[in-house]
Design a protein that fits this description.
The structure holds two protein chains of two kinds. Chain A has 31 helices and ten strands. By secondary structure, chain A is of the alpha/beta class. Chain A has three domains: 152 residues, Rossmann fold (3-Layer(aba) Sandwich); 262 residues, no CATH class; 111 residues, Arc Repressor Mutant, subunit A. Chain B is of the alpha/beta class. A five-stranded parallel sheet of chain B has the order 2-3-4-1-5, sandwiched between helices. A three-stranded antiparallel sheet of chain B has the order 6-8-7. In chain B, strand 9 and strand 10 form a beta hairpin. Chains A and B meet through helix 3, strand 1, helix 9, helix 10 and helix 11 of A and helix 4, helix 10, helix 12, helix 13 and helix 18 of B. Chain A: It comes from Phalacrocorax carbo (Great cormorant). Chain A: Its main location: nucleus. Chain A: InterPro entries: ORC3, ORC3_ins, ORC3_N, ORC_WH_C. Chain A: GO terms for molecular function: DNA replication origin binding.
Chain lengths: 686, 476
């Protein structure tokens, strides 16, 4: 943080703010994660409770002993974002440990290439966690470690019996809060983290073995599945899958997860730090295009925070409003200059009267006062922005075809980018909104009222009143419509009296016409009034953030930095390193003039450049000759006599080393098709 | 049916045995005659084979238990290494002998050790004059252990010079066991499959105490009528019988029909059983879910089976990578030019479709392709610029871990890895269908979510599927 900043007086302070902000964000995201997974975990827990209730009750009913032994199994479909699974499983095992059973084993495919390794891993984890439970007995531990050599199901069962007996004897004395029945024989949960990667044979063997002992050892399996549950059938033959009693659990889709995260992190006034439009777009694109990983999104967000606090000296003001105001008071002259240098502030100054301009540019105290006011403005803007944005989203998300996007994040991006009311989509959505039917409109208005009431902004008292007025008008309309219906019913009665067919037709037509023109016009007027009102709200509150003064303080908008950090391009980096070594080495001599091959470059660069000119198979002799010509060019004229037929030994050695380095990097490989040739592994210069 | 007779055992025990092993009398009497009397040496090794759940294990267990013959029963799948297997036999030997002091664990690494320890164990027993039976269930696993294990077990009697008989149980025939070097030929005994009559008899035997045997037998009759075509596995049938019995009893419990009213009962249960065949039997729906459904009297249609959830959500580029991989796997290399180059020129159809390539590539299965070809196809089917970032490469690996692609040459990663696409045509079509196509000024841009690009004003929406069929050589 210190380096790269001229005024280092507040770097520490910025660091502290950054840390505390990140801590806040982290705890918030964890909270969100917990809430989102709660439903899933609750289902799982109840499944686990149920699965071995028969085992615990030891029922001797006819059905029970007749039924074949099935292992209760939960198939947990988690989606393809494998990077997020680790966290889910960790919290899952925590939840289970607290509520169901202390005996949990997490197995990963890479640890279990064979059934033997699987058993070893399983027993290791189970027996260790048993030690957590009764941590005092050291002799027990010794015994366990001796036993560990024999990794078979029998020893596992023996261990289980001994452990459950012990807890049985302990329960009365300790008086556990949970019901004693559960503690008599808690199930042993085995979690297969990545079902797809396990070899078929290992899984089959394990299932067959454990099904034989299901009566002695209450085992529950949890399969973590990334693709689709079909994988169970493709991995296990019927004879094995018939030993399982599989229930399916589906976790929340990661897109929903992301929307909640964005909703809670970005669309609140709670966190002072904001993302600019381009940055947000980069992060979202990374998510949708590449990995679906919420973890990565949060990491990107963290990077943004760090980068912002690192690069922007005024980020010291990026904290809660009260603190920020206090800090402005203690600003030094330097920092005031920083403020003056902000483009948005300059724009603000230019819009002021001339004497005020001078005051702003010269008097520090006046500047501080104005800054405080502007900060407050910015804060209020955020508060209003969020609620109006939600309101607009309510409106647009009910429209057909979603001209402004289905998700609120898209609307948010659109609003950040430029003045949303100038876009075509906004026009079309307003037009569509003018065609909404009444019930939709009323529910929409009600939801808007809710949003405004719950929001903290002070200016919305009037808005709420206005919206409520609209609602009552709609109700009135409804009442009128009822009356009119009565009228029409009565007129229909009249119709029945008239027998003439022609007259009947005529009156019917008249009735229809009058109804359409009269009633709908009233409703239509009100509807357009509502839409206009919302339009005015949007125009006044959804101004893009970079039109606001001092937005640089809280918005992070340098997407290029982020893109550089997040989109690693190994091939391109390697190519530039070899093709243009100056880029990394910063040696003056290497600053090449383009096409020609400099002989001052490292050997490997020369060899690489030469090989780019060749086809799929490269003749080593030609290559060596070309190499030596390039190198000899340095030595100048005195070498030309010797190089004509005999290549220098040292150059030969240098060449061989460079070629083998290229081979190590994976650019070439020795070919068996032709002697003295190597094959190129890359095509056309990356 | 031949009654079991043997001079060595009391008639009452034999009668009990007979009642326990229905439909297997001839095999049991054969075994008894081989075993002979308790002290007589029997055949050194017996090999019993038969199809799944033809009662091999059950018969052996009941036979040895009812006649109280000394025996050791080991499942070879459970004790997956030879060491575990041998140790387990020794431990069981120790525990079934009366003196229980020697509980200390004795390591037994080789068969040589085993023979020595076995002799000790048998010598310490008071039942020296009886034949000891070692039953090895799922004996096909023995083939995967060290080469000497199987031949040594076959002539254990000779090696240890004790009165011992090894019984091997397996589902496959002896011919598949015989090692190259030759070995002692065991006595083979075949357990034939149960016929439908046998199944009926066995299943009806365990009727619930609340109902009469005839009632249950009628139910089993219906059950077999539905399931016998697809499943002859006794265990599975029994499981199904138990699961669906409560539904069968429903009219009786409600008082709408009495136990003799078979026709009515049949009408009630038949559609239910058919449903069960499609769901529970295939384990699409777990049995506990099925039971809950029956209790709540819900429609079975509510429960979605496992196969119903086939849709896999993939990131945007992963979808394209998968499609590119599929195209690379099923199209011949030389056709790439035609499919993915804008100006490929005229290629005459007769030339293009060579005669010997008439067989569909889809019948031949996926072919391996190098990484570079995959990327080249990817660049040409995605119109916006894709840079080969680490994100793309890591997506390829994650597709491999998801078992959608597979690596063919695993030995050398630097050497241009080769992949195969191992998803089905239906799957890839489902993936392609979710891609929507946008047209911007007449040019086609693919996007996963059209909302993403809607902020650009010049876009006309046009949702067209990425027509993968158009790009496949087989469907030209």
């Amino acid at each position: 943080f210190r380096e790269g900043n001229n005024d280092s007086e507040d770097t520490d302070l910025r660091f502290v703010i950054c840390q505390s902000l990140w801590k806040q964000v982290k705890s918030e995201t964890e909270q969100i994660q917990e809430d989102l997974n709660k439903q899933l975990f609750d289902n799982l827990v109840s499944f686990l409770r149920r699965s071995h209730s028969e085992f615990q009750e030891k029922t001797t009913k006819w059905t029970c002993w007749m039924k074949s032994r099935e292992i209760p199994t939960a198939a947990l479909v988690l989606g393809v974002n494998v990077t997020d699974h680790d966290l889910t499983f960790r919290s899952l095992s925590e939840v289970l440990q607290n509520s169901i059973t202390p005996y949990i084993a997490l197995l990963e495919a890479k640890d279990c290439p064979g059934i033997k390794n699987l058993m070893q891993k399983l027993m290791g984890q189970l027996m260790n966690c048993s030690i957590d439970v009764n941590s005092l007995e050291d002799e027990d531990y010794l015994q366990v470690s001796q036993n560990r050599i024999r990794c078979s199901m029998t020893s596992l069962i023996n261990w289980y019996e001994s452990v459950t007996k012990k807890t049985d004897s302990e329960t009365p004395s300790k008086k556990r809060t949970s019901s004693p029945r559960q503690w008599q024989s808690p199930p042993v949960v085995v979690i297969f983290k990545d079902m797809e990667s396990f070899t078929t044979k290992v899984l089959q063997d394990f299932i067959v073995i454990s099904s034989q002992h299901i009566h002695e050892l209450p085992l529950v399996l949890i399969f973590g599945i990334a693709t689709s549950p079909m994988i169970i059938h493709s991995l296990l033959p019927h004879s094995v899958s018939s030993l399982l009693c599989i229930e399916l659990f589906q976790s929340l889709s990661c897109k929903d997860h992301l929307s909640t995260i964005i909703d809670k992190l970005l669309l609140t006034a709670q966190f002072p730090f904001k993302l600019g439009e381009k940055v947000l777009q980069v992060l979202i694109n990374l998510f949708l295009y590449h990995d679906f990983s919420v973890q990565n999104f949060i990491k990107g967000f963290q990077l943004c925070i760090v980068e912002h606090f690192y690069s922007q000296p005024l980020s010291v003001l990026c904290c809660q409003l009260v603190d920020a105001k206090k800090k402005v008071n203690y600003f030094s002259h330097n920092q005031c200059e920083n403020i003056r240098r902000l483009p948005s502030f300059r724009r603000y100054v230019e819009s002021q009267a001339s004497e005020k301009q001078i005051a702003l540019l010269t008097v520090d105290d006046f500047l501080k006062e104005t800054t405080q006011k502007l900060l407050e403005d910015l804060h209020v803007y955020h508060e209003n922005y969020v609620s109006v944005l939600r309101c607009l989203h309510v409106l647009t998300s009910s429209l057909p075809k979603y001209p402004l996007g289905k998700q609120i994040r898209e609307l948010h991006c659109a609003c950040l980018e430029n003045q949303v009311w100038e876009t075509e989509e906004y026009e079309s959505s307003l037009q569509l909104a003018r065609m909404l039917n009444k019930s939709d409109l009323v529910t929409m208005l009600q939801r808007c009222v809710e949003i405004f009431v719950s929001s903290s902004g002070k200016e919305f008292g009037k808005t709420v009143e206005k919206l409520k007025e609209f609602l009552t008008q709609f109700q009135k309309l409804e009442a009128e419509a009822f009356q009119e219906q009565d009228v029409s019913v009565s007129s229909q009665k009249e119709l029945q009296k008239t027998t003439d067919l022609y007259h009947l037709q005529k009156t019917l037509l008249e009735l229809k016409e009058s109804r359409r023109s009269k009633k709908l016009s009233k409703f239509e007027m009100l509807r357009s009034e509502v839409v206009d009102y919302i339009d005015s709200l949007v125009r006044s509150y959804l101004v893009p953030a970079d039109h606001k003064t001092l937005h640089e303080v809280v918005y992070f908008n340098t997407a290029s930095v982020l893109r550089e950090h997040l989109n690693a391009a190994p091939r391109i980096a390697l190519h530039t390193a070899l093709n243009n070594p100056y880029c990394y080495l910063k040696n003056r001599a290497l600053k090449s003039d383009g096409g020609s091959i400099s002989n001052k470059a490292p050997d490997i660069c020369i060899v690489y450049k030469l090989h780019l000119e060749c086809g799929r198979l490269i003749n080593l002799v030609d290559w060596l000759e070309a190499f030596s010509t390039v190198v000899m060019a340095a030595e100048g004229s005195n070498a030309d006599g010797a190089s004509s037929d005999q290549v220098d030994d040292i150059i030969h050695a240098r060449f061989i080393r460079a070629v083998s380095e290229l081979e190590l990097l994976g650019f070439i490989k020795p070919s068996k098709q032709k002697t003295d040739h190597v094959a190129r592994l890359t095509w056309g210069g990356c | 049916m031949p009654n079991l007779e043997h001079p060595a055992y009391p008639a009452a025990t034999l009668l009990q045995l007979e009642s326990l092993v229905p439909c297997r009398e001839s095999q049991v009497s054969m075994l008894l005659s081989i075993f002979g009397e308790r002290q007589q040496f029997s055949f050194p090794s017996i090999f019993i084979y038969g199809h799944t759940s033809s009662g091999k294990t059950y018969v052996m267990q009941t036979l040895l238990n009812t006649l109280e013959l000394p025996h050791v029963f080991v499942n070879c799948v459970e004790y997956f290494t030879s060491r575990l297997l041998l140790e387990e036999i020794l431990i069981q030997l120790q525990s079934c002998s009366s003196e229980t002091e020697q509980t200390s664990h004795v390591p037994c690494d080789t068969f040589n050790d085993f023979v020595r320890l076995f002799k000790q164990a048998v010598a310490s027993r008071e039942l020296q004059d009886q034949t000891l039976y070692i039953v090895l269930d799922r004996a096909e696993q023995l083939r995967e252990m060290e080469a000497n294990i199987l031949p040594a077990f076959l002539r254990l009697q000779e090696l240890t010079d004790r009165n011992v008989t090894v019984v091997l149980l397996s589902e496959i025939v002896w011919e598949l066991f015989r090692p190259n070097t030759g070995c002692f030929e065991p006595f083979t005994l075949y357990f034939p499959d149960y016929s439908i009559g046998h199944l009926q008899k066995i299943l009806s035997q365990n009727h619930p105490p609340e109902y009469s045997a005839d009632f249950y037998a009628a139910y089993i009759n219906i059950l077999l009528g539905v399931f016998y075509m697809v499943c002859r596995d006794l265990k599975e049938l029994q499981h199904l019988a138990v699961l669906n019995f409560s539904k069968y009893c429903e009219p009786v419990v409600r008082g709408e029909a009495n136990e003799r009213d078979t026709r009515k009962l049949w009408k009630n249960i038949e559609p239910h059983l058919k449903k069960a065949m499609q769901t529970v039997y295939l384990r699409e729906v777990s049995s506990s879910q099925w039971e809950r459904l029956q209790r709540d009297n819900g429609e079975p249609g509510q429960l979605k089976g496992l196969s119903a959830h086939t849709h896999v959500e993939l990131p945007y580029y992963s979808k394209f990578l998968l499609i590119a991989a599929y195209l690379a796997s099923y199209n011949p290399v030389r056709t790439d030019k035609r499919f993915f180059l804008k100006h490929h020129g005229k290629i005459r159809k007769t030339n293009f479709m060579k005669k010997h390539e008439k067989t569909s590539n889809h019948l031949l299965g996926p072919k391996p392709f190098p990484l570079d070809r995959l990327l080249a196809i990817l660049y040409s089917i995605v119109d916006n610029r894709v840079t080969a970032t680490a994100n793309i490469f890591s997506q390829i690996t994650s597709l491999v871990t998801l078992q959608l692609l597979s690596v063919v040459d695993h030995n050398n990663q630097l050497d241009g890895p080769r992949y195969k696409c191992i998803v089905s045509l239906d799957f890839i079509r489902a993936v392609a269908r979710f891609l929507q196509v946008l047209t911007v000024h007449g040019e086609v841009i693919f996007t996963a979510e059209k909302e993403l690009l809607c902020r650009y004003n010049q876009i006309n929406f046009k949702t067209v599927n990425f027509d993968i069929i158009k790009y496949l050589y087989d469907f030209l």
